[in-house]
Specification:
Blueprint (H helix, E strand, L loop, with lengths): L7 H23 L4 H37 L1 H20 L1
Length: 93
């Protein structure tokens, strides 16, 4: 069971909205819309994806990492390392 099982519907809704936003951005480029308007939509889509990422990270920490920490040992250390690397990737992006 994944940590996000309880929020799958919300994640799907958010991802569907992002998909629609990206299609809209593509359409704006095809229609030669103003650059700043396109950038505004790119920013909105990026923010929406960041929201999905933070939700997944929160679920991972509260489920996967917490469970591994309760078990302890190398498995717990691995889950903490994975979480740290995921956070670093999010911060860099």
């Amino acid at each position: 069971m994944n940590g996000y099982d309880g929020s799958k519907d919300d994640l799907r809704k958010r991802l569907n909205r992002v998909e629609g936003q990206v299609r809209g951005i593509s359409r704006m480029v095809d229609e030669d819309k103003y650059c700043i308007d396109i950038l505004t939509q790119v920013s909105a889509a990026t923010k929406a994806l960041e929201t999905v990422a933070l939700s997944l990270l929160s679920d991972h920490l509260s489920h996967c990492v917490a469970q591994a920490s309760a078990e302890g040992g190398d498995f717990a250390a691995e889950k903490v390392r994975e979480a740290n690397e995921a956070i670093a990737r999010l911060v860099r992006s």
